[in-house]
Amino acid sequence: MPDYGQSLSFGSFVTPTNADPHRPVALAQASEAAGLDLVTFQDHPYQPSFHDTWTLLTWVAASTSSITVSGNVLNLPLRQPAVLARSAASLDLLSDGRFAMGLGAGGFWDAIGAMGGRKLTPGQGVTALGEAIEIMRGIWDAGNRMPLRHDGEYYRVSGAKRGPKPAHDIPIWLGAYKPRMLKLTGRTADGWLPSLAYLQPGDLQRGNATIDEAALAAGREPSEIRRLLNIAPVADTARWIDQLTAFALEDGMSAFILASDDESMLHVFGEEIAPAVREAVARERAGRGTVAAEARRGAIALSLRRDGIDYDAIPPSLAASAVEPGDRGHADLRHNYLRSGDPGLVLLPSTPAEVADALGYARAQDVPLGVRSGGHGVSGRSTNDGGVVIDLRRFRAIEPLDGAKVRIGVGATWGEVAAALAPRGLAISSGDYGGVGVGGLATTGGIGLLGRKYGLTIDHVTAADLVTADGRILRASAEENADLFWGLRGAGGNLGVVTAVEIDAMRLGNVVYSQMAFDATDTVGMLERWGAAVEASPRELTSFLILPPIRGGQQPVAQLMTVFAGDDTDEAIRALERLADAAPLLDHKAYLLPYSGVVQPADRHHQGGGDPVSRTGLVDHLDVATASAFSNLARSGAAHFLQVRATGGAAHDLAPDATAYPHRHQNFLLTALGASHERLDPIWDAVVAPHTNGLYLSFDTDQRPERLVDAFGVNLPRLREVKATWDPDNVFSANFPIR
């Protein structure tokens, strides 16, 4: 059989005996110390002399730091698949992505029956295993908003909630020997895990052929499926090395798992055998010109490639992690929070130099370019159809600097930032949702729930690291590249790919977080009274209001989110009471908690949505005329989501030309989402726009040229000069491009 070009890994197969309860754990730790990649345990729940394998896997994961843990293989008939999937996701999250799912269809059916399991024939067991895999992957698909349903012959799931999403794409390896199991492996699994002791001469070749045929029939590339092999020690070291090298080069095996409870043998395997086999295989592959599995593309995958992209020219630094249509990871990367997308290539750099490589490559392609930090932007410009997306999720470091300053990678989310800063008594005002990426908010504005007290997020950015359109890696601050630094704070998407920002955090203990529900029947009066109460409140209070579409015959209920940035509960209560007078109060809950409890970490597993359009407008006050206009929009049916954000207070402390973002006197931001610009724009332009003065760029999808004036106002001429200096070719043209 051909060499599939898969990277090699080495592991141990430890007996989970409980005679000396801690012995299997010690052997797992020895495996890690020996440099092995994987430790596995057999699973026989009916065997009283063995530990429960799942409990053991959990204990071992907590007792190690780098080695992957797996069953070899888990006994599916005694482990309900939906629960097993949740358990696996939890263990993967707790271990930072160190779990693999080794599964078996079942055996020893009398013992399984004695434990209360359902006795199946071998054929039934294979069918049941296929159903279980579908259910488990459905549970892990946490971004899918539809409840999970599976009406199988052996397993049924009726509307189960999905999640949690594992820390990484958990591989499913099947212990398979007979044709039906081998075909199932080829169709659906990520790996084949037989034991050499159970194989006859030629079984590896026959098994690979069956798996490959099934994979191709299912539209899969055979090299995607890892070939693992449980092996026994060999006394002659040289012979052992030759044997494993031959298994890799001639039989396509790429993971070797040693069945041994001898600690010294584990060290020999990890420290002597594994390096020698890796070296021998690498040397032979170099001579043969073997293509790595990660770079192989089957006929079906090749057919999904997009015109205008030279896939063969992807820089070597990015090729291994690049994601194309047809790759399993493409589904997790194609969309953003609200916007559907179908990019032809997603690049995942992890260093500024790789960002420069990605940008240089993207410039040479004849397709759109998107740059993504968190992918939560309402405007959806971080994805595209058929183009290249540079995804910065690997830039997630959160590094404390001197005092209250912190350096943050743009791929981190604000929920992660809040959680990291809370133990130090620090916070950064950052929107209202923890799943928002740092990069977009910290270069556009940042109207958040601490805004009236601390201003916009960009007001506290003191420096930025970025890659410019021509591939230079620079730092921008008040002292270095000052014109670029000015432009990045408000128009960053036009000027470069920011990889990290330095921000002065705020000293902040607990806050009061309030959630109110109003009867919004008197919509105009409610908006006017709420707006007046916000403006009259101390700066510590910031409030956002969500207004539903108002339909005849239905009672409209407005939702209010408010933060009082301080732990003086008496003053907070007085301020909240003024808000509560805005309309009949239907419900109110208030909490004293850290800011990290308000902006919590959130999964970024985005599945797109209804592809809404949005319009925004900044207003000085919610006077009767403005409130009436927004109320009329809510009653028009043209918008399905409407929000008002308070953005006064400290945001006014800077001059309009202090940053590229110029809006330093308005007190509120109006936002509306609708199904199409054809429906939303006419009423917005005619009814709402006359009362507005400026827009908030990241929430707006109307890119007519006149919107540039609304977005940047008096700063637009200077921004044109900065754009001409740093991006004269308009490489960054997806986000309100400045000509």
The CATH C-level name of the largest domain is Alpha Beta
Overall pLDDT, averaged? 95
Continuous helix count: 23
Major sheet: arrangement of strands: 1-2-3-5-8-9-10-11
Q: What CATH architecture label of the largest domain applies?
A: Alpha-Beta Barrel
- Give the number of domains: 3
CATH topology of the largest domain: TIM Barrel
The share of residues in helices is 25-40%
Q: Note poorly predicted spans.
A: none
Percent range for β-strand residues:
15-25%
Q: How big is the Rg?
A: 29 Å
**Shape assignment:** globular
DSSP, total strands? 28
Describe the model.
The chain has about 750 residues and is an alpha/beta fold. It has 3 domains: about 10-295, Luciferase-like domain (TIM Barrel); about 305-390, 2-Layer Sandwich (Uridine Diphospho-n-acetylenolpyruvylglucosamine Reductase, domain 2), CATH 3.30.43; about 510-725, Vanillyl-alcohol Oxidase, Chain A, domain 3 (3-Layer(aba) Sandwich), CATH 3.40.462. About 35% of the residues lie in helices and about 20% in strands. It has 23 helices and 28 strands. An 8-stranded parallel barrel has the order 1-2-3-5-8-9-10-11, surrounded by 5 helices. A hairpin with a 4-residue loop joins β6 and β7 (about 155-160). The chain is globular, with a radius of gyration of 29 Å. The model has no long low-confidence stretch (mean pLDDT about 95). GO terms for molecular function: FAD binding; oxidoreductase activity, acting on paired donors, with incorporation or reduction of molecular oxygen.
